[in-house]
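Task card 7
Instruction: Convert sequence to structure tokens.
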Amino acid sequence: MEDVLDLYAEPYDPTRPKVNFDETNKQLIQETRPPLPAEPGQPERYDYEYERKGTRKVFLFTEPQAGWRHLNVTEQRTMLDFAQQMKWLVDERYPQAEKIRVVLDNLNTHKPASLYEAFTPAEARRLLTKLEFHYTPKHGSWLNMAEVELSVLQRQCLDRRIPDEETLKREIAAWEEYRNVERATIDWRFSVTDAREKLKQLYPSPPS
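Output:
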């Protein structure tokens, strides 16, 4: 926990960006009947019947200090998908960075081994020399600021029925552009000092 909080407390350094990574699911739902349009005093109404059209995975990167985020929609959440996300981060977003510090949780795919599964050993090593993973502790995924961004995404964009992948990608891209133009940041205030005071039960007891 303190490793992540110490990282958050460091001053901004564009050569060593601090990036948060997380993912979520979105169920695609096709309406079986057209919704009734909104009227004065009456919101838009949806029929209780619907048709499931599968799920999609939504990967999210955010650099809170820079007010930047990027999302990608895929069909699966595999080691190969994770590896492709990391390759994009290194080669497309931060090609000039000395080191990219990535905060993420301990999902089984979120490992260096995923890059070796996806790429040749030389390519995997090249990417990993640019990446530095900082994992949130077990039951501590709330320490990942990407969860804050995903919560905003859910409230502002995904809290409704979306029928297909094309619509999902279009809506997410519009939301991403809006948030990036606004340079929306995250005001993180929980520090190592706060952790030691408020979460004392999580620390081992000193020898008597």
